[in-house]
Design goal:
CATH superfamily of the largest domain: Ribonuclease H-like superfamily/Ribonuclease H
Structural class: alpha/beta
Number of helices: 12
CATH class of the largest domain: Alpha Beta
Shape: elongated
Strand content: 5-15%
Largest sheet: 5 strands, mixed
Strand order of the largest sheet: 3-2-1-4-5
Helix content: 40-55%
CATH architecture of the largest domain: 2-Layer Sandwich
Length: 344
Amino acid sequence: MWFWFRLWLSVTRLLPRERRDLVLENLALRHQLAVYQRSQHRPDLRTPDRRFWSTLARGWSGWRGAVSVVQPDTVVRWHRTAWRRYWTWKSRARRSGRPRVTPEVRELICRMARENRTWGALRIVGELRALGIEVSASTVRVYRWQALRRPPSPSWRTFLRLHAPRIWAADFFTVQTLTFRTLYVFVVLSHERRQIVHWNVTAHPTSAWVWQQIIEATPWGSAPRFLIRDRDRNYGGDFVRRARAIGIETVLTPVHSPQANALAERVIGTLRRECLDHLIVLNESHLRRVLREYVAYYNDARPHRSLALEPPAGPRELTPSPERARVVGAPVLGGLHHVYDWAA
């Protein structure tokens, strides 16, 4: 359409000047009248209208005297914008040179770069060549940089996974008995498999009692490298120094920040939701008996979502299912939970 309009403007140059000006002025006024007729309150100028005036201003020197719907400077700005877009389109990049890498190969390069942040471009080229994919090192560098966008460094997930076997967490929680007596439960958790490595109950937690629990939880030099705990006074003022003496670095959480010890808080929440909220604790011995049975179930049989539905102690060894065998369930805590296996 615009090609024929520009061609028509070129043909009007063959007319006498007075006749040409009259025809173009009539065309400009009719266009503005059409704009006013389709608008209700103010002129509604669209992209075709801007193209019309930009093309008309380029082919007719007397257009300023015929325009009334907008300012002449606006038409000049439209024309400059159209000219700039034209040369942007004219200078667009053409496909040339080597064939482009397929999206599947690009995604594979980015995946290798993200999962192996210490690998360089040549290492990725070697891995791709082993898979039968021929890609140059310069191409790998381009997409590797797009995937990383920062210097190669292990992610925090990788860092924590490497240090998780040597990180423990400890925390207290309280339980109310039938006679309104408060009992304190001390729990020590391993970050590697979310396993409860030690627990105990007392009515009067002291610094000596807490330190005794740490000694019992770390027999034969099995102490962790880091122990995450809060700033409870039950630990005592010399806990950090005594823990450092046996190779444990104490990591204190900020004040009023239970999320800083999230794994321990999550285990305590599990103990409450799946065990203690369903019964009334009679006394300290009753609480010990209940926790002993549930902690054994938690470590050895309870599926854990962050461990691919395996128990913290590792996959259970079930009896192979014989023909026409039936599944039997062993009750835990009087039937609150069950552990299932094939009948022998």
